[in-house]
Amino acid sequence: MKQFNDKTFNQIGKPITESPHYMNTLHISFPYEYAANAANLNWSDIFFAITYEYMDYRSAIEHARVQLENDNYPQAVLDLACISSDEATFPHVIHPYIDELVDITGENMHNAKDKIMYILLKWVYEQGAGIDNIYFNDILDVAESIYHDFNFPESIASFASWRILPSSMVEPDLGSVEKNKARLLDHWKQFLDEQERRWRSSL
């Protein structure tokens, strides 16, 4: 079994031993089915999403049951798939199997971070763009919080850093709040389209 320590997440954020909400200050979560439809998930993605509570522990069981559809799968997948949903509420029941299955190499964990950020932003966008949102007052404020949580990634700066951009980088005023907001949402949608092509290419 792999042993995880404080250095495991040094390349993607703060160590795992710190608050699990470091990258989820808004405590947003989405269902496994939604994530699986948005991107091709692997165990690194599941581990990352569960660690920061973007998905719950039942997601690991759901992913294991999907993996059973393949011809070859390790024993840990079968063992995980056999756990009941009620048992999945206890982390110690799930983690031995996830820890065995996850690949913690730098590239995989960086990809997991990017992929989960994309799924998160897709979920938020679809919950709120163009409608009166029951979850958030303004989804651009949510995007800004996600921008902070994920350590200011340049890939989403065009719509998520609008409050903190230097004046020299701010796009010309379009003459109304509504038009300026619509432009930011367009940038958001462009990001989602690009990421969809990246993360669903092997589905």
Give the C-alpha Rg.
Answer: 18 Å
Number of strands: 0
**First-to-last CA distance:** 29 Å
Q: Quickly give the structural class.
A: mainly alpha
Q: Uncertain spans, ≥5 residues at pLDDT below 50? A: 1-19
- Please provide the ordered H/E string of secondary-structure elements: HHHHHHHHH
Description:
Helices cover 52% and strands 0% of the residues. It is mainly alpha-helical. Mean pLDDT is 82; it is low at 1-19.
Quick gist of this model?
By secondary structure, this protein is mostly helical.
Structural key phrases:
52% helix; elongated; mainly alpha; 203 residues; single chain
Secondary structure elements and their pairing?
Blueprint: H1 32-38, H2 43-51, H3 58-67, H4 75-81, H5 91-101, H6 106-128, H7 139-149, H8 157-160, H9 177-199
